[in-house]
Amino acid sequence: MAQPIVVRHVSKAFGVGKGKIEALQDIDVDVDAGEFVAIVGASGCGKSTLLRLVAGLMAPTNGHVLIGGKVVTEPSPGIGIVFQTPVLLPWRNVQQNVQLPLDIQRSGKEPKRIDELLALVGLRGFERSRPYELSGGMQQRVALCRALVTNPSLLLMDEPFGALDALTREQMNLELQRIWIETGKTVLLITHSITESVMLADRVVVMTPRPGRIQEIIKIGLPRPRDFSSLRDPEFHRACERIRVLMNASGLME
Known about the structure:
Blueprint: E1 5-14, E2 21-31, E3 36-40, H1 47-55, E4 62-67, E5 70-71, E6 79-82, H2 94-104, H3 111-120, H4 136-148, E7 154-158, H5 166-183, E8 186-191, H6 194-200, E9 203-207, E10 214-219, H7 234-249
Parallel strand pairs: 3-8, 3-9, 6-7, 7-8
Antiparallel strand pairs: 1-2, 1-4, 4-5, 9-10
């Protein structure tokens, strides 16, 4: 079952004294259960820090994060995370890499669940392949399956397609949208790409430079499912232009 996210008055600072760096300042945002929200902003604005706070990988300096009404104090098996690089274990094959979270949780093998996920992302037939035998896009599909194998209610994605070539990235965008529609999970996506954020999200959160604050939250009115024809929709251009204006006003773009 999808879970909502509530972020209230969250700030995060690193270091002390003159070496103190304020990464986030007074962040307030809600993500509804089953909603797809993207966060955009310049490097160093605290996007990834916010994701790690939601994941329970670090604690806020001030404020709190709630998932499903419960304050986040530590990582939860109900959260799946996909990072920019797949971080697959080279000595494990595809099936074994997807199995890893179940091994860590000592949940036992779930071959049917793994088979269903690999089929969902188009990797049936590659179960015995090692990471070095796969393309970058295929490796990231494995990482996505690994994040989904415990059937988390929330999927957190930190620039998951940033290292892929443009064509593969577009294909993965459509793949991610399809999986999200089929599973109904809550998704929080960090991205530098304005086009990607508008193509995928229900709402886009635009952040200011450090210390990161929420500058504006933009609702995307495009119908679903979206495909490359959506790029010609006036609503697509309106949303992209608004995000560019905000980022230019903050000095995030040249």
